[in-house]
Amino acid sequence: MSEKFFLRNQPAVEMRGIHLDLKGLPPSSARLLEILDLLHQARINCVLVEWEDTYPWKTYTVLRNETAYSLSTIKKFLARAEKLGIEIIPLVQSFGHLENVLSKRRFKYLREIPDNVSDICPLKKGSREIILDMIKDILLTHKNIKYFHVGGDEVWSLGSCDKCKKFVQNNGKAKLYLGHIEPILEFLNKNGIRPIIWDDMMRNWNITELKRIAKHTDLMCWSYSKDPFTFVKKETMEKYKKAGCRIWAASAFKGAEGAYVDVPNIESRTINMHQWVKYAREMKMEGVIATGWSRYNTFVSPCEGIEASLHTLALAGKIAWDGDIPEKASEWANAFLKHCQNQGIRTGHFQNCYQASEELQKNRDTAFFVFRNYLQQAHLAGEPERINPIRAKNARKAIFELLKKVKESAREWEKTHRGLVPNVWIKKYALSRVEPVKKMKELICKLKKQEK
Ligand SMILES: [Zn+2]
Predict the structure, then answer these.
(1) Do 116 and 52 form a contact (C-beta atoms < 8 A)?
(2) Distance between Cα 202 and ligand 1 center (Å)
(3) 99 CA to middle of ligand 1, Å?
(4) What pLDDT score was predicted for residue 379?
C-alpha cells in the first residue's frame, strides 16, 4: 500500500486533480488505463480530460485523428475511473482554441477572423450548435458526471469581425462573450451538470458581469509560475469570490517550462503546485488541478510528454494530499514510482524516458545556440571581408556533430516510449526534434559559399 508515502490522514485539498491533455502525444489505449491506476496511487481523485482529436466523435467523425480511441476504450477508461473513485471532468473547447474544429474545411466559415484558426465567431449561425453537438457527443459516453469544463480561454480575437465589432461598441466585450457561452452553460445546468470555465477572459469583468456568470459555472484560475499570483492577482480572485463565484486553481505538472522543452523542471513545478494548494485552502477553493499541456498551441511542436514527467505528476498528488513539498522531492518521487512498479503499474521506464528526453533537450539547445552564433558572424551580414574562416568551419563542424547527437538521442527517446504511445505519434515527436537541426545544417551548407 502507498500509506508510507503520505503524511496526513486527511487530504489538504478535497478535489485533487490532474489534467490529461491527450492531443499531440496520446498514450496507447492500454497505457491510458494504467495512468488511472498510477493517479489513484498518487491519491489523485479527479481527472480533467481533454480528449480533443483522440475522441471517437460520432456526429463529426472528421474531428478524430488517425489513432482516436475506440468507444470501448473510452468506456473502459470511464469504468476504471469510477471503480477507483476518480471523478472525470471532460473538457470541450467552446470559444478559443478550437483549432481541431476550425482548421477543417467545412467549419472554416465559423472563424472570427479568416486567418485565425483558433477562435469561433459568437454571432455566426451555427457556432453555438457545433459546440453543443460536441458536448452532447461527449455526454453519450460520460454518464453521471458532475462537472464539465468548457474551456473558453484565450479568445484573443474576440470582437474582431464586423458584426462582433459593432456589437462590442454597443454592448461591451463581456456581453458578447456571455451571449455565446450562457446558452451552453444553461444546457449543462439543465442536465444537472456544473460547468467549469478558465477564468482569463473574465479577469477584467465587473462584479455585475461576474455575478451573471457565477450563477451558471465555476471558474478555474490558471497560473503556472513559481509565484502564481504575479499572473493572476489575489485581488482578482477575491473579486470572483465577492461576486459569488466558486473557484478552482490550476497549476501545472508539465507543459509550463517553455514551448520547446523535453522535460519539466521539478523545482518550479512543485513550488507552483504548493503555492496553489496553500492558497486554495486559505480561499476555500473547490479544488486544485495540475495541468499537463502537450503543446503550447496546435501550430508548434509538442512539449514534454507525460512519460518523462511521471515524477512531477506523482508529486502533484503528494503536495495536494499533504499540503507540503517533501524534503527530498526527487528521491520521494523515485521511491514512489518504484513502489508503483512493484504494484504492477508500469513506471520502471521513467528514468530512461527522462534521461533520453533530457539528453535530447540538451543537444537541441546546443544546436540552436551554435546556429545562432554562426548566423551572427559579420561576414554573413554584409561585411564579407570580416571573416575568420576557422570559426565558420568550426561552427559547421559543430552543427554536423550535433545533428548526429540529436538523431541518436531522438532514436533513444523513441525506444524508451515504444509501447506507451502509438508509433505514429512517437515518430512525429522525434521528427519535430530532428528536422529543425537538419534545416540548420542545410542552411549552413548553403551559406558556405559566402566564406570564400
Ligand atoms: Zn464575429
Answers:
(1) no
(2) 19
(3) 16
(4) 86
CA of 167 to the centre of ligand 1 (A): 9
159 CA → ligand 1 middle, Å:
6
Write down the catalytic residue from 14, 87, 154, 408: 154
pLDDT tens by residue, 33-51? 999 999 999 999 999 999 9
CA distance 117 to 356: 34
Ligand 1 centre and the CA of 435: distance in Å?
37
Residue 226 backbone class (left: φ over 0; alpha: ψ -120 to 50; beta: rest): alpha
Residue pointed to by grid coordinates 551572427: 376
Query: For 170, phi and psi rounded to 5 degrees?
Result: -85, -35
pLDDT of 449 > 80? The answer is no
Is 72 strand, coil or helix?
Answer: helix
Q: Are strands 194-198 and 218-222 parallel, antiparallel or unpaired?
A: parallel
Q: 3-348 sits in which CATH class?
A: alpha beta
Position 135: which residue type?
Answer: I
The verdict on pTM exceeding 0.85 is yes
Q: Is 154 a catalytic residue?
A: yes
Q: What is the pLDDT of residues 324-350, one digit of tens each?
A: 999 999 999 999 999 999 999 999 999
- Rounded to the nearest angstrom, the distance between the alpha carbon of 387 and the centre of ligand 1 is 54
Report residue 191 as a C-alpha cell: 442536465
Q: Which residues surround ligand 1, an ion (CB under 5 A)?
A: 112, 121, 123, 161, 164
Instruction: Please report the DSSP string for 367-407 in residue order.
Output: HHHHHHHHHT-GGGTT-TTS--HHHHHHHHHHHHHHHHHHH
Closest CA to 246 of 176, 199, 191: 199
Residue 443's contacts (CB-CB under 8 Å, 6 or more residues apart) are none
* Distance separating alpha carbons of residues 58 and 172, to the nearest angstrom: 36
Contact predicate 224/274, CB 8 Å: no
